[in-house]
Amino acid sequence: MAGALIPSCTLLHSSHLLNFRARSRPSSAPPSTEPFISSRPEKFGFQLLSSRSGRQCFPSVAAAESTATSNILVGDDGSISIDALRRFFDLSSGKWNGSFYQFDGNGRMLQRVSTKLSVSTYGEDDLISLIQTLYIKQPPSSTMVSGYDSEPEWLEYKIKETNMLTVDKYQQIGFFPTEKAFSLRYQTAGMLETVLRAGVLGEDDIGEESPRNLKLPSRFPSVVCENCLYSLKEDMRIRAFHIMDPKGVADMLLIFLEQRDDAPSSISSCSLQDVPDRIIPFLGKWKGHSITKRSGVYGATIAEADTVAFLELDENGQVVQDITSTSTNGSTANIHWSGAVSGNIIKFDGGFQLTLLPGGVYMGFPCDIAKSVSQSQSFHLELCWIESPEKRQRLVRTYDMDGLAVSSTYFLETRVY
Q1: InterPro entries, per this entry (predicted)?
Q2: Which of 215, 260, 323, 358 is spaced 20 to 30 A from 337 at the CA atom?
C-alpha cells in the first residue's frame, strides 16, 4: 500500500507522512492513542537474524520482547516525566562555545562556523521552559576596509522555546539522563539554514534562496534528526543532525561540537581532528552495553543488552561487520554484514551507509529511506563518537514507516583489540 501511495518510492515530508498514516488506517479502526510505539517492532533496517526465533530484527528488539512489560514503570501523575524534563533542561543549560560543521553525504566538509549557545530555564513544574539563544560568528564583509582590524561580530538568533508539549509530542525526545545522551526530531531545518547563511555569508547575504557557493538544507526535508552525545571525560558534547531530502536521500550532515563555559579545556579543543584514513579508529572488536527507550519524556526502558561488535577491513576494501547482542534474559541475536569502502563511505549490502567524518565520528543512515517506506519497513539513523582510542558511544534513533520516532538506543562500548 505504501508503494501505491508514494509515487516512485518518494518519501513525503513528515507532515504528509502523518496524513498518509491516517489515510492508510482502516476506516473501522479507532485512531491510535499511542503514536510513538511502532505496531511492528520487528521491522528494523538491520538485516539481523534472531537465533531464537529465526526472523529478522534489530538487536535490541529481541531483548525488548521479554523486558518491555516488566520495565514500563510510569506514574499516573506524570511525576516521572516532569523529573525527566528537568534533568534534560539541567543537562542542556549553560553557555556553550564551539564549532558548527557542514558535510555532504560523502563526508566532504563544506563549511565550518564558530558558534555560541546560551541556554537557561524559566517557570516551574510542568510550565518550565528552556530558552536558547544562538550566536553565530560573522565572516568578514566584502565591504570591510583593507587593513582595518575590527572586533568579530556575532549574529543573535533566538531558538523557539522548548517545553513539555514541544519536547514530548513534536520533538519526540529520546533521553538518557544517566548516560547523558538524547535524540530529538524537527519539522524543518530553519535554524540550521540560519547558521549557514549568517556564518558563511554574513552581511553579504542578499536573501537568495540558493546563494552561490553555499548549499542550504531542503526547505521540505523528509527527516531532520538530532542525536547528542556528551563527553565521557570533559564538559563537552557533540550534536549531529541528519538532514534527509524530500526523496529520503541524505541531503547533508551537520555537527555542533561544543564545550560548556566552565569546562577546564579551552575552546580551541572544540575541533574535529582529521586523519588520513578515517576508518582506522573503528576497526577491531568492541564490547559494551545497550539501553533502548521509547520516545517521549515518559521514555520507559524497553530493552537492555550486552553487545559485542567486530569490524574488519581486508586489502581489497571489503568490510565485514559482526554484532552479537545478548538480552538481560539470555536470548541472543546475531548480525553479519558485508560491504565495501569507497573514500569516506562504507556501504553495506543491506542498503545501509556509514559516512566517516573527522574526529572519530561516523553517521549512519539508509541509502534510500523511501525504499524502506515503500516496503513498509522502519529505519534508523545513527551517530558514533570515538572520543578516546579505547571508548566509544553510539546513539541510534529508530523511526517507523510513517516517519515517527519510536525509540532510541544508547551504546557504550570499550575496545578489546
Answers
A1: BFA1-like_C (IPR048378), BFA1-like_DUF3598 (IPR022017), Calycin (IPR012674)
A2: 358
Strands 109-122 and 129-137 come out as antiparallel
38-75+276-415 fold? Lipocalin (2.40.128)
The C-alpha cell that represents 285 in the structure block: 572488536
- Any idea what DSSP says for residue 48? E
**Under CATH, domain 79-139+152-205+212-262 is a member of which superfamily?**
Calycin beta-barrel core domain (2.40.128.20)
Query: What is the predicted pLDDT for the residue at 377?
Result: 87
Question: Is a pLDDT exceeding 90 seen at residue 20?
Answer: no
Tracing cell 533566538 back to the chain, one arrives at: 158
317-345: pLDDT as tens digits: 999 999 999 999 899 999 999 999 999 99
Strands 301-313 and 48-50: what pairing?
A: unpaired
The x, y and z cell numbers of residue 326, run together, are 545478548
For the chain, how far is it from start to end, CA to CA, in angstroms?
47
Amino acid letter, 203: E
Q: What is the pLDDT of residues 254-306, one digit of tens each?
A: 999 999 986 655 445 578 999 889 999 999 999 999 999 999 877 789 999 99
Q: What is the DSSP string of 219-288?
A: SS-SEEEEEEEE-SSSSEEEEEEEEE-TTSSEEEEEEEEEEETT-SS-GGG-S----S-TTGGG-EEEEE
Q: Rg (Cα) of the chain, in Å, rounded?
A: 21
Q: State CA 167 to chain mean position distance.
A: 15
DSSP tag of 56: B
Among 191, 58, 83, 197, CA closest to 139: 197
Contact 117, 131 (CB under 8 A): no
Please tell me the predicted confidence (pLDDT) of residue 264.
Answer: 57
* CATH 2.40.128.20 domain span(s) along the chain: 38-75+276-415, 79-139+152-205+212-262
217 Cβ contact list (under 8 Å, min separation 6): 189, 192, 193, 196, 224, 243, 251, 252, 254
